[in-house]
Amino acid sequence: MSAFALTVTCRSTRGIVAAISTYLAENGCNITDSAQFDDRETGNFFMRVSFNSETGTTLEQLSDG
After folding, report:
1. Distance (Å, rounded) from C-alpha 46 to C-alpha 12?
2. In this structure, is the dihedral angle defined by the CA atoms of residues 24, 26, 32 and 37, taken in order, positive or negative?
3. Alpha-carbon Rg of the chain, whole angstroms?
4. Are 27 and 65 spatial neighbours (Cβ–Cβ below 8 Å)?
5. pTM of the predicted model as reported, rounded to 2 decimal places
6. pLDDT tens, position by position, 11-60
7. What pLDDT score does 2 carry?
8. Is residue 17 classed exposed, middle or buried when 0-12, 13-18 and 19+ CB atoms within 10 A define those classes?
9. First to last CA, the chain
10. Do residues 62 and 4 make contact, with C-beta atoms less than 8 angstroms apart?
11. Are the CB atoms for 36 and 48 separated by under 8 Å?
12. Could you confirm whether domain 2-56 is CATH 2.170.130.20?
């Protein structure tokens, strides 16, 4: 089982957390830890997600998606 950490920085918008968690689940990954926040002053969104690939999905396969 491979363990990964994903960091995200982007403009804040509705659905980011849902999109990321859905993508990971659809690719055989299980989220083990997640933290996120919006910076209301800049309008940016920040997220860090730790997850395991339970089906052997590689970093390259995840990056291509």
Report:
1. 8
2. positive
3. 12
4. yes
5. 0.90
6. 999 999 999 999 999 999 999 999 999 999 999 999 999 999 999 999 99
7. 84
8. middle
9. 19
10. yes
11. yes
12. no
